[in-house]
């Protein structure tokens, strides 16, 4: 019996010893081997870590006017353990925040310390919730991006997402500077989520983002947007784009595109897609919105047409293969490698003309000959030297490079076509940057959209200095080009941009659109690039009208008045005083007359009416020779414009059948 008892005692003792050893091993594993992991889990249970958002930097124009700022907002969190009547609280939050009740009920019932309810809640809504005194709600200061002028400069500014992160425009390209660094509010709590008395609470202050000062001038941007909006309506175009640049620094003073979008509501469904939006896939919806956000001024490419003759002229003069007084002969067409390439006025050839007159007349055979004299190697050296075929490195997303043929695939016909702006594609920002170099003593400047970054106290953190890329042509050639391009406005096809008292230079362009390798009948791009004052350029202005839907599609008719409007307003704003020539002074002394409406009239009747109103005229034929009974297709200036007696009205007549 004693042996039995002793055996049982030894068995129990052995069992307890083994169990004790297992407990020791387990405790060793928990406290030593996995100690860090369990300590972390314990800290997570005891600690409440609430993020404190940073304030996004303000975006200013060059003169300190706010273009994008941050309006006060809140993030709302809930501590489920403190919510007593979860059903009522979910119902209340649903009514105030316009959210799904079931989703809210799930959040206020979660087995977690803290749950996010909603971000970017405005002050008025938070005030309503505070008044309801709901236990368990936490309100954290936040901010919501706000654009005071809605769709103003939308393609420059861009927009942010729900988390205040830049998605497009300068909001995206300068994201790391604007966003700042969020802070943290860390404190110790008990099992019920209440702060432990005497615990070590840590608050890390958020670091606000830097403020961004742009090169954009708000006033000039308004001038550009007003002119572009009017042009969009008058021409019934698909799109109108305008860029204003300081040619000496590369500063973009304005960039306006219509139609545009509201930066405060960039995800608004386009009107034309509302009916089928719900049936579209998420990818299709995103692609549709992306088309709205895409910046045509830097992303869209097109054949520049006659505006590119500026580049051909500069290259020819620089290489000495042509001089301003050299004479050419236009017979209406040129035979190149067995192909006949026509002048736009082949039905009524320009005949004998100087190089300057060839530029004024935009005569294709003149530029074909200049390119032939240059040869493709030299010509392409200048095409690439002026930046075509490469991005300009403007600090905006989605810049295209344009298309420039590989020089090995350029034959005589391709060289000839390139000379007058066909067979090559450019972006608006490339073209204005290149032409600015032509008139800026040959210096190609990198387009600049941002001037500096400053902190909240106004201290400069970083300066974005103007950057010279290279000198493409000499100062002498540049001076000659300024005079030639001035004559295009004073005597040639660009008279629609003429402003008394100011020397304006420029070049018109009308190009047929190409799609899938073929030119599309009835689809055109009309453009004009101008600069002023021609003797000391302070601004360059490019206007591109994509697919005008009205009666006219000529750059000299519909694009020149837009550029004229922007230049006139901007020079006066910049306090550039007009300097009238003797002839202009005499014109100012003359009486004013109202331009009559002559569109749809017969040519012979229009001439008579203009004469009766003490106005001169110049006939610009584009497609064929008109007759006395031909109808007037378009005119510039337009009807009802007030002009000086003796002013010239440019008329476009329907060619004879």
From TrEMBL:
Coiled coil: none annotated. The keyword Membrane applies. InterPro entries: Beta-lactam/transpept (IPR050515), Beta-lactam/transpept-like (IPR012338), PASTA_dom (IPR005543), PBP_dimer (IPR005311), PBP_dimer_sf (IPR036138), PCN-bd_Tpept (IPR001460), SpoVD_pbp (IPR011927). This is Stage V sporulation protein D. Residues 591-655 form the PASTA domain. The keyword Acyltransferase does not apply. Gene3D superfamilies: 3.30.10.20, DD-peptidase/beta-lactamase superfamily (3.40.710.10), Penicillin-binding protein 2a (Domain 2) (3.90.1310.10). It is found in: Membrane.
